[in-house]
Structures are given as structure tokens and as C-alpha cells.
Design brief:
This protein starts with 11 loop residues before the first strand and ends with a helix. The protein has about 300 residues and is an alpha+beta fold. The longest helix has 18 residues. The strands form 3 sheets. A 6-stranded mixed beta sheet has the order 7-6-3-4-5-11, with helices on one face. A 5-stranded antiparallel beta sheet has the order 8-9-2-1-10, sandwiched between helices. A two-stranded antiparallel sheet has the order 12-13. The chain is globular. The protein has 10 helices and 13 strands. Bound molecules: zinc ion.
Length: about 300
Amino acid sequence: MDKELTRDSFDRLVHATACDNEVRCVAAVTTNLVAEASKRHRASPTVSAALGRSLTGGLLLGTMLKDVERLTLVFQCDGPIGGITVDADAHGNVRGYVKNPSVDLPLNNRRKLDVGGIVGRGMLHVVREGGYYEMGIYRDAYRGSVPIVSGEIAEDIAYYLSQSEQIPSAVSLGVFVMPDEDAHYRVTGAGGFMIQVFPGASETVVAELEETIRQMPAVTEMIREGCGPRDILHAALGRHRLTVLEEKPVRFRCTCSYERALRIISAIDPEELKSMLLEDGGAEMVCHFCNASYRIDAATLADIIDRETRA
Ligand code: ZN
């Protein structure tokens, strides 16, 4: 990954409880990391919104992970976007990609980016796994799948939480894409929140929260006015006080590297590598998650072929 794009941004996440621990809540501002993902993948405005909501959703769900676990969200869908994959950890790192980043759709009949239209229908799969693979210590993966209900991402994640994890949740995710002077565009606000109600929460509290959430301004509006994750949670919880459990920076971060690219190349059949050397004078590997490309030069490739043929 190039240095310029990996610097930490001001994106933040706040994880809290409220109402005597009956309510768990998380909010995140992800403007910079969504803008970075959009730029890396050269995503269209509607794809930027779909990917940005998914990345933010991954970070919110990531707060449910234990230390060494990872979470993968996959929208396996029939809309023009072709599929979305997001991978998040418990430390605020997220990465993701879509199958067709350049496709776009006109605004929907509410004059909004048509995320539901570009995603379409299909399944949402969530996989939670973790452990210390290098030492062979890991627990069984947890997998859950639900049908995509609207393709608007937040609703789909809320449906997944209610069906697969039996946690009633309100989820709101937003990405604001602003047209630029020269027919370009940029992401100027992104973020979201998730409010979860534990069994035993009083019906009065639930009804009150539903009403407060319905009346609060859109998250992207709040973020574009300079609000942080705490402000978003205060708006969503109304009169209820927050107990903050953690506040941390969040970022787009990929685990790929030149060394990993070399290891993958070394696993390819030497005959195939020879033809790459002859035809392309080297090899190039592009990481799906972050679009970084790794060029393996002719001398290095020849060394690998030599080593693999003798092995
Ligand atoms: Zn990568």
C-alpha cells in the first residue's frame, strides 16, 4: 500500500452502553476512510455509497468481536455492483471491495443515490473467525446468512442481527457524495450508528428510543455539520445518559504486502511463471481489497522459478 493513503485519519468510533446496560450503542464517523476506499477502487458515486455503508457497517459489527477475531461481510447479490466484500477486525481496521466499481445508476425516486438498486437481491453472509493461525490455535468460524431485504445495507445488517444473532438493533448508515467542479465527485460525509437492545429492556425504553431515532437528523447531515460519534449517540439516545466503553480511531487498512505477493507467486506452477517471464518480463499482482499493485521484476521472478524448479 502506498504511504500517502495509509496515514491515520480523524475517523473515530465510540462504543457505549446506556439505560442500565440494557442498551449497547456504537457510532462511527468514517468520512476519510470511505473517501479513501472510493478513490482506491475508482468507485462511482452509488458504488462509493454502497461500499462506504458496508465498510462502516463492518466497523460497527467489529465491536462485537473478541480481540483476535475478524469479521467478513459478503453481499452476494444480483444488482449491477456484482457483490461487496468487507473485512473488519476488533481494532478499527477495515478493508473492502466490490466486483464492479465503475457501474452507476441514476438517483432513485427520493432523489437519493440508488444503493438498493445497485445491490439488488441475494444473500448477506457474515463470517466471524479468529485465532492465532501461525500457531494453529483457532476456534471454529461462526457463519450466518440472511436474504438481502432492501439492498440499502443498514436495513440488511439490522435484519441479519435480528434473525441470525437474535439481537433487535437499529442500524443507520450514510455516505454523502458531493459533485465537484470538474464533473468529479468526492465523499464529504460518512458514518453510522447501531443501537442494540438486550433482552429485559423495558418496553417504554424501546418505544422511546424508536421515537428519538425516527426524529433525529440523518447521520450524514450531522457529520457534515461537524458532529462526532458521541454527538450522534446523544442524538439517538435522547435523554438517556451514555457510559462510554471505548473511543478509538478507525481506518482503511489492508494486510497485503510485497512479501505476501512474493509468497503467492512462489506457489504458482513454475511453467506458468516461465511464460509470465517471457511474455511480460515479470509479474504483477493486484490486491482485490485495496487495489495496490505489486510488480515482481524479471530478476526476482527468474530467481523464484529457479528455486521452485530445483525444489
Ligand atoms: Zn491490499
